[in-house]
Amino acid sequence: MIELLFIHGILGKPEYFNFLQPYVPEGFHTTAILLDGHGKGPREFAGSSMEQWRRQVAETIENLLSNGNKVIIVAHSMGCLFAIDAAMRGKADALFLLNPPLSLRISRKLFSTPLKVKMGKINDNWVQAAKDAYSISDDGNLVNYLCWIPRYFELFREIYRIRTIVSGLAVPTRVYLSTHDEMVSPRSHRKFPLRPEINVTMLSSSGHYYYADNDCSIIVSDFYKFLKQVSN
Question: Would you say residue 84 has pLDDT above 80?
Answer without folding.
Answer: yes
